[in-house]
Amino acid sequence: MSAAPPEATATATALPSPLEAVPELRAAARWLIAAFGAVGAALIGGGPLVAVGRIDGLGEALTAGAALLLALTGVTLAIWHISQVLVPPITTTATLTDPSVRPLCRMIDAAPADFFGSAAESVADLLRHRTIAANVHRALLAEADPRRRDHLQRHLLRARANIARTDPQVRWLLAMAHVWQIRAAFHTARRWCLLSVALVAIGAVAFLTVAGRSG
Fold it and tell me: What is the mean pLDDT of residues 29-48?
């Protein structure tokens, strides 16, 4: 009774594992961190330090310092947000209500047969057997009447059989949600990278302008 039907297992195994995309996403994040780290090293390297020696006056020194701080802030923001891609997210069925995962659920609900076959008609339909089993189990613990306990026990066995039948699809769905969370973090990091590039460019140009004028 606990074995999943061949159709359910075949539907889940026909799709590639979403977790295969995780190493590539994290490799791209590491590359971005290394790139912004190199920019930060260049900003505090020999070139700017030589330029500092040409700055004359408190006003220009404060302007140059603020410009350099702005550029380094851009680098720090980029590295901070990119590093979030490397933090493994916790993924459970409750994660499916997270705003970052809702687009995935909407995509699956638009064509459930492509993802679940005949196992379920939506994400909620796929997960309802777990909710039913939990509710029946609680009712069984609180029931004292033997006849009603037998009735609830049969419902619980049926719910557990449905859980076993849909378990391959649920595992695939949670794996996809896990990757989707990392993907959302990567997209957020890319937007912060664009802002960081602008901050670095503004800060570097302002610093070099002040240093060049002083020189």
Answer: 81
Phi/psi for 17 (5° steps) reads -70, 125
- Determine the pLDDT at residue 46: 58
Domain count, the chain: 1
Report the interhelical angle of 22-43 vs 58-83 (nearest 10°): 170
- Identify which has the larger pLDDT, 60 or 96: 96
Distance CA 129, CA 162 (A): 6
Better-scored residue on pLDDT, 47 or 39: 39
Rounded CA gap, 164 and 214, in Å?
A: 74
Q: Which domain holds residue 179?
A: 21-204
In a domain, 15, yes or no: no
pLDDT of residue 19: 83
Rounded Cα gap, residues 112 and 13, in angstroms: 16
Structural domain includes residue 82: yes
What angle separates helix 123-142 from helix 146-214, to the nearest 10 degrees?
A: 130
Q: Is 131 domain-assigned?
A: yes
Inside any domain, residue 148:
yes
Name, in order, each residue with C-beta under 8 angstroms of 181's C-beta and a sequence gap of 6 or more. Answer: 89, 91, 95, 98, 100, 101
Quote the tokens at residue 2.
């606990």
Q: Report pTM.
A: 0.77
- Token pair recorded at residue 50: 């030589």
